Amino acid sequence: MTESNAKCRLYVATPLSENAPVSLQPAQAHYLRNVLRMQAGDAIAVFNGRDGEWLVEIDRLDKKGGEGHAIRLLRDQRAEPDLWLLFAPIKKARLDFVVEKAVELGVSGLFPVMTANTSVGRVNTDRLRAQAAEAAEQCERLSVPRVAESMSLKEILADWPAGRVLLVLDERGDAAVPIAEAFSRLNDEQGRPVPAAILVGPEGGFASSELDALGKLPIVRRISLGSRILRAETASVSALACWQAINGDWRGSRPKGQNDA
Ligand code: SAH
Questions:
Q1: All domains of the chain in start order, with CATH
Q2: In this predicted model, what pLDDT tens digit does every residue of 74-92 receive, in sequence order?
Q3: Closest Cα to residue 112, out of 95, 135, 133?
Q4: Which residue, of 13, 36, 114, 168, is most buried by count of CB atoms within 10 Å of its CB?
């Protein structure tokens, strides 16, 4: 049972405040009507990434979409840790897995990055955005991470934000530091994590020229996940989990959420 009795949480674009009208997309209305068998008068929880989570009463559901109105705030907005995942695109099913797990593991940004050995030519960012929203709804996040358009490694490095450390998962490098050791040095003097990005390579691995160039940048730490070569999705999930445990929000207690009532 949840505090709100809401059977479902949805991500919406509209601003949320008391009595604010809330519009639902046709696919959301279809899901509520035909899968959950909901109707006008039923309540759902919604969030928009800015105004917290709200209890919403449904006023109308039909083929064209739906409408409701916000009743009361269920949870205050809170930010996810400032952690990006940069990934060389891999095949569809594996990429979907990476996006879903990265959202559950609390990333704030997802960046498809084209490297020398990336074999997938095009990324459907709209599909990834929809997947990110769905994963955020399911895992009770209050925000959906930004999904950037794909860029080359060179492009993203050319515009790299000052102060953000780049954690390169390096499957071969002698220069790579074991992950627990590297991550334990990342927090500032108050124990707060510095903004970070984890970069995972493609199935074909990084080109040695890429690793050499990355290794010369002061913002880069080359990270080892041990002697076994992991698939890109295993490496992504493992590194994100380590970051949350050592630097992120797995360190503190879980804030009171919907399911704790
Ligand atoms: N085909 C490549 C492996 C690529 S694995 C090869 O044989 O070298 C895909 C990506 O996962 C790598 O580019 C790296 O970013 C990450 N990865 C896999 N295993 C890793 C490990 N043991 N340590 C650090 N990163 C790893």
A1: 3-75 (2.40.240.20), 83-247 (3.40.1280.10)
A2: 999 998 999 999 999 999 9
A3: 95
A4: 168
